[in-house]
Amino acid sequence: MRYLFPSLLMQAKIIIKGHLLNPLWHSHYARRKKRRDAIVEAKMGYLRQYDSYVKGISPVFPAEDKQKLQEYAFTLWLQGEQQAPPIVKACIQSMRAHIELPLKVLDENTIFDWISLPDHIMEKWRKGLITRTHFSDICRIELLYEHGGIWADATDFFTAPVTPLIMQEDFFIFMAGSNIKRGGTHAFVQSCFIRAAKGHPLLGMWREFLFHYWEKENNLIDYFTLHFLFRYLVENNDEAARLFSKMPKIDQDPTHVLFCVYRDAPYSPEFYEKLTKPAFFQKTTYKDKSAKNPIPGTMAEFIISYKDR
To answer: In 47-85, where does DSSP find H-type helix?
Structure first.
């Protein structure tokens, strides 16, 4: 019952503020922003029940190691690379071409060669309470905390090496941006690409909150639960806020152009170069019809054919 009432209250706030009190005569984008703001307010409000816990999370600073530790690039397709859709295979091939760290393409068997997870998370994963997508959220945090390097979603299409400025950071994650799909997103950060040194204290604090959340909860508060936990952490824990303040803030918007906006546009080398120059990777999805049956001669077809090059 402790968590039932806050959950119902959260949904009621979204319905009232995001829909019932969202004037129909306002513009499409104004109404979308109001819905987005209502979602953020309600879901951050839900997490207030964890306030004392979050304020009590302390960073653990790893002992200084004079030797440079081997870092890796990680991606995960639980069913196995050979079973992946064509666009995922193309993305993985692009990682092999552009990422300078050793790439580990993991699946539901090999992932546990690299990490172990708390029993309560494994139990909820086996029961289906944690979806594949959100199990991947947990795995990426643990992989980087234990080993360091970069995480890339299996749907990240790399067009260049990772920016050296980002690789020099001990912790980096793109900010969610405001222009994606012309209406913004209620996510605070994105997590399809993360750069982190092994044992980074901010990553460790995020990890601790994530594990605690799944110890107490059986459901997600949102598709972007991982992002909401990070936001609540850096806005309500002084040390997390201090560590986060050191990170350069770069919007994700340039990484969501090639496929998200222009997937069905005719391919040309010049247009492709223009779209991909501002970022070193482009986010795709395997669920879109253009990923499954691309129109010949389009950007989507060019991306998918990368697996054959």
So the answer is: 51-55
